[in-house]
Write a structure and sequence with these properties.
Length: about 250
């Protein structure tokens, strides 16, 4: 390929004056906004760094679409007095950012006297696909009993069997535990003692929750891993075990 076709002088090897590579402004705003939303969903800090790199990114980064996707996992679950952080959380809540809804939900349900609004926020976040919100919302419904119990079992078992493999469920539980430890817990949830598993082919059929022996390990394909053994079980048994783990978590165990 000739140097001249690239805008480079044959004699000097230098780019001719007036010849420039396509800049960031040549890309459509929709594409740039998608890029910013992707960055925002991975790291709020990275989003701030990109926004500070140029005026175009700063302006596009203020769009509601970007803030819908921004992750707040880097921010501790506490109330801030700094105006810029408080403003960020307020805006994310107003546009129903899933992370913001989850934070409002978990704090409202377990720390406030009125649990209703907190449960509504968890439900909204769950509908938007927030994994931790779906996890906690499903557990709350299970322990509520009645028809809600069945809804909760379906929601949690769908996470176990479809969306989350073993290591991802453990990571979800770890993140929830970090949130719980950072809050003042005023409201616990209490489970009933009837096992949810009624599948006769499950190796734990008929066992009460207090007699469950699994240590909380997870494996894809319907297995629960014990420290000494691996055995076949159903999704409802795993719900049994997950409820026990969460209730113990709330009690600081």
């Amino acid at each position: 390929m000739a140097f001249s076709s690239l805008g480079v002088s044959k004699a000097t090897g230098k780019r001719r004056r007036g010849q420039h590579k396509a800049g960031i402004k040549s890309l459509p705003n929709d594409l740039l906004m998608e890029l910013l939303a992707k960055i925002a969903s991975a790291s709020f800090t990275d989003l701030l760094n990109v926004k500070s790199s140029c005026k175009d990114f700063h302006e596009l980064g203020e769009d509601d679409y970007v803030f819908q996707h921004v992750t707040l996992k880097e921010l501790p679950l506490v109330w801030y007095t700094k105006n810029e952080v408080s403003s960020l959380l307020r805006r994310c809540k107003e546009i129903e950012n899933p992370d913001a809804l989850f934070r409002e939900g978990i704090c409202g349900y377990f720390s406030s006297k009125d649990q209703g609004p907190g449960l509504e926020f968890l439900e909204k976040a769950s509908r938007k696909g927030h994994v931790e919100a779906s996890y906690i919302y499903g557990l709350i419904l299970i322990c509520s009993g009645g028809q809600l119990k069945q809804q909760g079992l379906q929601l949690l078992s769908s996470l176990i069997t479809c969306k989350l493999g073993g290591s991802r469920m453990k990571e979800c539980r770890r993140r929830v535990k970090d949130y719980v430890r950072s809050m003042w817990i005023n409201n616990n949830i209490v489970r009933d003692q009837e096992p949810y598993c009624h599948v006769k082919t499950c190796s734990n059929y008929g066992r009460t929750p207090n007699s469950l022996t699994a240590k909380g390990g997870w494996h894809s394909g319907g297995y629960v891993e014990d420290e000494d053994d691996t055995f076949m079980c159903c999704a409802y048994y795993q719900c049994d075990h997950e409820v026990d783990l969460f209730c113990n978590m709330l009690q600081g165990k």
